[in-house]
Fold Oxidoreductase NAD-binding Rossmann fold protein.
Amino acid sequence: MTIRFGIIGLGNRGYKYALKTIQQSPDCEIEMVCDVAGKNFHQFEGVSTTRIYQEVLDNPNVDAVFIATPDGTHAEIIAACIRADKHILCEKPVEITEEKLKQIYQQAKDYSKVIEIGYVLRYARLFKKVKEFLENGVIGELVMVRATDHIPYGGYAYFHDWHRQRSLSGSLLLQKATHTLDLVNWYADSQPSEIMGFGGLAVMGEPGAQKKFGKPVDKALRCRDCLIKETCEESIVYLAKEKGLTWGEEWPDSCVFSSEVDVEDHQSIMIRYKNDVKLSYQLCQFSGFYQREFQFYGTMGELHFDDQTNEITIYSRTKQEIVTYKSSYVEKNMEPGDAEQLEDFVQAIQTGTPPLSTLKSGVIAGLTAIAAQKSIDTMEIQTLPVF
Ligand SMILES: NC(=O)c1ccc[n+]([C@@H]2O[C@H](COP(=O)([O-])OP(=O)(O)OC[C@H]3O[C@@H](n4cnc5c(N)ncnc54)[C@H](O)[C@@H]3O)[C@@H](O)[C@H]2O)c1
């Protein structure tokens, strides 16, 4: 049975996942696309288009919906999909507030159709292989994890548009770190119990403006109109020229040093899990190089990996033995795991088996990031309820 998709949200993620993954799958076809601003309609020749998502849900030929709208719109659209009885593949994070996460979980937990959340790294080969090694006990019992997200283009990716405002994205812990936090929840095979963190703005936002200009910048300032667009290291003009970062023709360009920025550009988080595993995590939006890096410490050894060398190294504590695993698989999609995630979604629809990334695990990942941000804001340790 071919799964006929409706796509809601055709921004950076939505249209690429639709074209590179859904449209390429032999099991899927795109029936209808929707974007409130009419973005990227031209990429979908012969497919019906709408700016009103309810029209996708009212279409009886749509079996499943892919939601790729901004984070703070997901719960409303998931609820509408449930009313319309559609299968749902929704981008991460599930939502941006604790209230909305808990509410949508209650509304959807007994839904009979598939709900899968786009924690795509659970599906990527290297990350799945790590899970397999840990489950096979190669380092004994897992005790501690250290994880780091290094992002050299944080300004470019998150500080020119809606991601930079807490009212729209929650925080960059919820937007970016959420992948790593979800992975550690999965690897530890447990739920966070106590969470604490520190964070702040060092390079972007008003602190950055004070350092660079000695005063705040006008809220309406955009790179395209800025006098220093050729030399400012955060300008999209400079980055396109110097670093080849050209992800979209209409890439947003509000000044990253604006006082409107109220998310943070660096965070350091500690978590103790219900099974006593401990995590130490750092997110940096202004690093010198890109990497997602993990070290796992077990009773019998260590496992290290990162997503740039694509290597997993296992160090035994009891023998003179180091094992290295290198993934030779070349990812073709926007994100590693994109195609495998879609396969899991299709399989869940066709066989009734639950997906690997469920609404429940997505809600827990979201609550983890929100609790971490709350700890930074209140300087108090946060606790998560048992789900
Ligand atoms: N899994 C991943 O690796 C990954 C990567 C990037 C983005 N994302 C997620 O994908 C989602 C979209 O992110 P993005 O970077 O593409 O954002 P974006 O701002 O580029 O695109 C969002 C699109 O949604 C449209 N939109 C907004 N409200 C709408 C509504 N009510 N109905 C229809 N269309 C609406 C906007 O016009 C815009 O075109 C976010 O939840 C983000 O966290 C996931």
Residues 141 and 298 are 5 Å apart (CA to CA).
